[in-house]
Structures are given as C-alpha cells and as structure tokens.
Amino acid sequence: MPLYTSQHLKIYNSLSGEKENFKPIHEGNVGMYVCGPTVYSNVHLGNVRTFMSFDVIFRYFLHLDYKVRYVRNITDVGHIVDDVDEGEDKIAKKARLEQLEPMEVVQRYTVDFHDILKAFNFLPPSIEPTATGHIIEQIEIIKKIIDTGIGYEANGSVYFDVVKYNETNNYGILSGRNIEDMLANTRDLDGQSDKRNPQDFALWKKAEPEHIMRWPSPWSDGFPGWHLECTAMSTKYLGNHFDIHGGGMDLKFPHHECEIAQNEACTGQSPVNYWMHANMLTLNGKKMAKSTGNNILPGEILSGDNTVLSKPFSASVTRFFMLQAHYRSILDFSDDAVTAAEKGYKRLMEALDALPAISAGTSSSIDFAAWKQLCYDAMNDDFNTPILIAHLFEGVRYINLLKEGKETISAEDLKSFSTAINAFVFDVLGLSDEKAADSNNDKLEGVVNMLISMRNQARADKNFVLSDQIRDQLIALGIQLKDGKEGTTFSI
C-alpha cells in the first residue's frame, strides 16, 4: 500500500490564498513544474533557497511513494533586463560585455548552477528543458493565441492583448491585481510603442540588427518573450493541465500571471491546480543586492571567502539553516543564525551516530508511533520543515534518554524509529552526515596514496605496464594523477 494513502497532505495554494487538500489529477502521480534560473550569472543564494524548498517538496512526494515528474527549466534566451519587454536580453548583454558567444555564457553559468546544487545535495529534476530547445513549440503557441484574436502582430513583434483577454477571463487572478487599476497607474504609451495597451506583453520580439540571439518565425527573425517559454515547456512535458507550478514569490507577477493568461487563451482551461511560491532571503536584515555589497554567493559560504561570515560553513549546515524556516516565510541570513544552526546540526548528527548502539528491550516507555505521525503531520501541513525539525530534536532527546537508560524501546519500535528519523533527516530534508563523508574521504585518500606508492615503485622497477595500468584505472574512476617536482598528487 503506497504511503500517500495513509497521509493527508495540505498545500497552500497561492491562487486561492488557502491551504487545500492535495489531490493529484492522476492518482499516485504528481506533475510539478518549477521556474529555473536565467543563466547569465552565478546562481545567488536566494535562488538556492527557492530551489531547495522545491527539492524538499520533490523529496517528500517521493517519500510518500508518488511517481513524480519534476520539470525545472533553464532560461537561456528571452529574459529582458529589468523583466520588461523593451531592452536587451540578459544573456546577450552579458555576452556583449564579456565579448563571448551567448552560448558560452549559458554554458558557464549552467555548469555553475549544477555544481552549486550538487554541492547542496539537490536531487536532479526529472526533466531540465531549455528555452532555446523549444522555439518551435513556442511559435506554435503564438499561432494559436493569434487565432483566438488575443495575440496581435505589430512590425514583426507579437503581443498578448491583456484588455481583450480580460473581457472573458481574469487577468490578475493569481496576484490579486485589478486590470483597471493597473491601466490607471501606467503612463500612456509613447508613439514608439507597438503595443495596444500598456499592460500587453510580448510573445515574440523582432530582433534588432545587432541582436545575436535570433530565430526565424512567421513574423520576423526574432526571439520569444520570457513568459512564453514556461507555458511551452510545462505543457509539453506535463500536459495542458497539471498539478503544481512553483517558483519564487517575485515571479507571481507578471511572470506567472502571464503564464496563466497564455495557457487559458491557448487551451481554454486553467493550467495548474496548485500554485506555490517560496519567499525571499535577506542578509543581515536587508535585501540582498550586488550593488550595495550586501550579498554573498553560495560558493563563498563554503569557501569562507567573504566579508559576511566569521568562517566557512558546510553545505549541510547551510541547508539545515534554511530549512529551519517555512518556505513561505522571509528568512534572514546572518553569521549568528548560521552559527546557531551549525550547533543544532551537530547535535542531530551526533544523536543519529549514537542510535545504532542502542539496545532494544521488551517494551517501549515512549509512544514512538505517535512521534512518527507528528513528523508526518508537520510535512503534511504545507511542508512545514521547521515543525518537522522541532520533532526531530524531540527524537534526539529520546535517543539521549535511551542511551542513559532512562527510557526503554522494543525491538520493533527501535527499527521503526530508526528508519523514520533517518528517512526524515536524510531522504526528506536532504541533509548529509558530513562526519561520515569526511571519514570516507580520508579512506579514499589513503587508498589512492597507497596506489600512488605502488605506481612509484613500479616506475622505479621500470615496470611501466603496471604503472600505466594503475594510472589508467584511476582515471577511469575519475581520479586524475599529476606528477610534479614535489611528487605525485591527485584530484577528483
């Protein structure tokens, strides 16, 4: 029997503003789309927090035995500076400033994105599509929207007529904005604009002669609007109607609002059952911004190469810190807060390390089944990780009492308790036991150094077949040897 049949999950739906019982469209299956990064710079810490929130959500669905298709895109074209329709593509601008091909910029920062998420122990999504890989699908959607009369072409560009759409639909249904108020608070269009209304947004932009990133279309050589890519990729891989769409709070308007409008104009139905939004991250009580210097990159936390923190902090400690706040609440990052999280993380790991040595008795003096359900209740309440962590520390208290002989546990309860607490810590929260990892690294280093010594002896004995064999087999395992004046070193 799948675990999800005995657990009753509630999700806060941004569309209704309420927690709702989760019921997937197809029983036992979850389709989830999350807006990924625009790869024109190093992934920032706020992005990591958002993606971490959905990583935990993904993990919990898997833990509940759902079959999950998790789609998280890469935006590699079409995202205009300042999130408007006029101006320069963020990637093209970066390429121009650094005198690179746009795809060199994309490659550099996509690799950075993956490296950082791997360091923080994220599970990869089921599918990670790119905007440039779905130009054809985007053009087809534009054609459909034009056929409805809601899309219109002007001088080679195509726009979405928000006012016409609003005659039969509700533009603002997600963000709670009123179109009349939006129009009243927007300055009149100047004579240079091709838009009918100030709130109209681009589906396709005609490329200026100097614009490098361009594709042929029925209207012009150009590129798709930013909002269109997510409509194309989410519906391609999840269908016109799917379970969950997530992203940062800053994407609710206009990006997600425009997605809803595009989907409804194209398919005649609302695309998503549950809209989920993760809140922002501040640094020392202030908004994070490169321009003010109040900023820190994820890699700088791990290396300690920053002016914000007193020392380096590990990925697991940073992850543990972030999960101590609910994904819908603002989280403030500071040296004191992460230092406190580090102490809590070490307490948790020490207790888990001690758990295998606990002996079972004939009966339990604690209701471990009730504790286990409290952990599930926390996650079932809109993925409430801080409440889960509080219950995990209650589990730590139980472990210490059992160690001291002040409480007893039956063999059956010990197995269930051990399985549950490890599953919540490692599988659901995605933490790692760094002490165990360090121990494994020390063992690996010892084994490699032993093989290097054997190789050096083989070379001294002129047994070059054996020395080359050792080198080649290490390379096949991803371990690169480097011979220098100081001797032989290795890297992984």
TrEMBL record:
Residues where ATP binds: 290
A UniProt-annotated Pfam family: DALR_2
Catalytic activity entry: tRNA(Cys) + L-cysteine + ATP = L-cysteinyl-tRNA(Cys) + AMP + diphosphate
Alphabetic keyword roster: Aminoacyl-tRNA synthetase, ATP-binding, Cytoplasm, Ligase, Metal-binding, Nucleotide-binding, Protein biosynthesis, Zinc
Species of origin: Flavobacterium limi
Phylogenetic placement of the source organism: Bacteria, Pseudomonadati, Bacteroidota, Flavobacteriia, Flavobacteriales
EC number(s) stated in the UniProt entry for this protein: 6.1.1.16
GO molecular function, one term: ligase activity
Cysteinyl-tRNA synthetase class Ia DALR domain location: 374-440
Subunit structure, as described in the record: Monomer.
GN (gene name): cysS
PANTHER family: CYSTEINE--TRNA LIGASE, CYTOPLASMIC (PTHR10890:SF3), CYSTEINYL-TRNA SYNTHETASE (PTHR10890)
Name of this protein: Cysteine--tRNA ligase
